[in-house]
Amino acid sequence: MTKADLAKSLHEKIGPKTTKKEAADLVNIIFDEMKRALAAGGSVKISGFGNFFVRTKRPRVGRNPQTGKPMTIGGRRVLSFKVSQVLKTELNARRS
User: Fold this and answer.
1) Which of 5, 15, 20, 26 is least surrounded by Cβ atoms within 10 Å, i.e. has the fewest?
2) In this structure, what is the dihedral angle of CA atoms 79, 80, 86, 92, given to the nearest 10 degrees?
3) What's the sign of the alpha-carbon dihedral 31, 37, 43, 47?
4) Mind listing the pLDDT tens digit for each residue in 26-65?
């Protein structure tokens, strides 16, 4: 599913109250706010869906795949997601 698919689905569910452009703008606003919160070091908790949060990885020693020589892989921030129990249960119930 893409942002365009989300905007289309939102427009269809809201109905004639909004235009397709307004629905797309709403989706963009939501994602912009999520990015802003995560960039500031916060987390995004969506009830019944899960939590997005930023983790900090420390520098570590790795190997250059071409030469096999050790090299330092710098520390970085990565985005992580932890699924909610509600969504996990729903996904597993559909498999059966």
Assistant:
1) 15
2) 120
3) negative
4) 999 999 999 999 999 999 999 999 999 999 999 999 999 9
Q: How far apart are CA 19 and CA 26, in angstroms?
A: 11
The answer to whether 59 and 72 have CB atoms below 8 angstroms apart is yes
d(CA 16, CA 92): 35
- pTM summary value: 0.78
Contacts of 90 (CB under 8 A, 6+ apart): none
- Which alpha helices (DSSP H) does 1-96 contain, by range? 3-14, 20-39, 85-95
